[in-house]
Amino acid sequence: MCVVSMRIVTPTKGTLVSFQLLRGHRRPAIIAATAAACMAAAGIWFTSGSASAGSLSGTMYVDPSSQVVKWVAANPNDSRMPVIRDKIASQPQARWMANFNINTVTSEVSTYINAANSAGKVPVLSVYEITNRDCGGASAGGAPDLTQYQTWISAFSKALGSQTVIIILETDSLALQTCLNGTELAARNQALTKATQTIKAANSQAKVYLDGGHSAWNSASTQASRLRDAGIQYADGFYTNVSNFQPTSSEANYGRSIISALSGMGLSGKTQIIDTSRNGGASGDWCADDNTDRRIGQYPTLNTGDANIDGYLWVKPPGEADGCSFTAGSFQASLAYSLASSAPNPAVTTDPATQDPTSQAPASSAPASSAPASSAPASSPATSDPTSSAGCTASFATASSWQNGFQALVTVKAGNAAINGWTVTWTLGSGQSISQVWNGTLSTSGSTAAVTNVSWNGNLAANGTAQFGLIASGSASAPAMTCTAS
């Protein structure tokens, strides 16, 4: 059951409603469903009114099955819950499509789109499936090759319906190109162009935005050239600051410079989306999951008051990790609370287009690193039984599979004492070979595979976890894994 209390705060911008989900003996699926029902009853599906300047209008959809909503439902007595509920779970955030599975993507997207359309809201989807994603960094993965990528895009596009949907297409795909040679870069540009055309052909009301990096990364002229090469003429515009922390004012200025450069190339009418999910505090090192100077930025809205900006969106869900201190994409309540604790309540923000939580904590200058990676939600399939050895265990989970291939995630967990490094070994099945590993270093000898930690995920506290992923050919099967700690 749920207890709902309502407090009308600003009639023109919606209501703030609080709810409490009473703890009971429920399965996770029931908890999530109950959370959705409670939040629907509570009416926390608002965030903005009609657009005053950009090309988009309407109210964005709040995903009732997001990680933060599930956490709120499962932790009613946690002292951090009210802050996380009111300032994060109540807000629309992008639904990330990051686990490569051609067989289920159509049904997954159709369910989400239909729910948003039925509610009269605008859904936001972040597509994160490009081959060689994140150049093998903390969020590596994606489609095994660009042929299968296009097959996935076609299956994805079939489910987009006929109403407005916002598509954030392939974060970092244009700003981060250091791992691509000339041939690979040309193939990626062609793939992004075709993906945009495929989405637009399936739903003419789909609004597609390409990767614009952020204001402290590439120059506006460089990014504009990359956008042109990737087919922005077929898209609606570009997005910036996804998973980063640059101030909204810096991003807006950067966006205007890109728009000007594009216009000089004969590509006029393009607009910008800015990710404001974490840009309300300090900047600095992007890969710092435990940075307590971070803050949520401007609350999500399509009412920007700026003709060049279609929306301030929360593309990177606040509280979901970057893959440094915690597993990429995992929800961490400590991160969410740190981001939201000092931000104003969205209900007392009289106009999200003019009152910005970033004013509570001015952002500093550009981060030290030049090329931040982005993080996508981690999958959570059933895992195999872990096998332990010398202070750690390893468990295998198939994230997605296709004909003669699969993607898997392996979770390493320390025992009751801290460890300084780990190596996971197992025997490859008949016909299996590994083509890519991220968050670990692969070595093979005959049919034996071994993955050792990289520099930043080897030191684990007692019961701490790390995760690496892999793409392999052959049939997916859960091997017996041995974890050795050092």
Provide a descriptive summary of the structure in words.
- The chain has 486 residues and is α/β, with parallel strands linked by helices.
- The chain has two domains: 46-360, TIM Barrel, CATH 3.20.20; 387-485, Immunoglobulin-like (Sandwich), CATH 2.60.40.
- Helices cover 23% and strands 22% of the residues.
- It contains nine helices and 18 strands.
- It has helices at 28-42, 67-74, 81-89, 105-118, 146-157, 182-202, 220-229, 248-264, 333-340; strands at residues 2-10, 14-21, 95-97, 124-127, 165-169, 206-211, 237-240, 271-275, 309-313, 387-389, 392-402, 405-414, 422-427, 433-438, 441-445, 448-452, 465-473, 482-485.
Report a brief summary of the structure.
This protein is α/β, with parallel strands linked by helices and 486 residues long. The protein has 9 helices and 18 strands.
Task: Summarize this structure as a short list of keywords or feature phrases.
single chain, 486 residues, alpha/beta, TIM Barrel, Immunoglobulin-like, 2 domains, 7-stranded parallel β-sheet, 5-stranded antiparallel β-sheet, 18 strands, 23% helix, 22% strand
Helix and strand arrangement:
Layout: E1 2-10, E2 14-21, H1 28-42, H2 67-74, H3 81-89, E3 95-97, H4 105-118, E4 124-127, H5 146-157, E5 165-169, H6 182-202, E6 206-211, H7 220-229, E7 237-240, H8 248-264, E8 271-275, E9 309-313, H9 333-340, E10 387-389, E11 392-402, E12 405-414, E13 422-427, E14 433-438, E15 441-445, E16 448-452, E17 465-473, E18 482-485
Parallel strand pairs: 3-4, 4-5, 5-6, 6-7, 7-8, 8-9
Antiparallel strand pairs: 1-2, 10-11, 11-12, 12-17, 13-16, 13-18, 14-17, 15-16
Helix pairs in contact: 1-2, 3-9, 5-6, 7-8
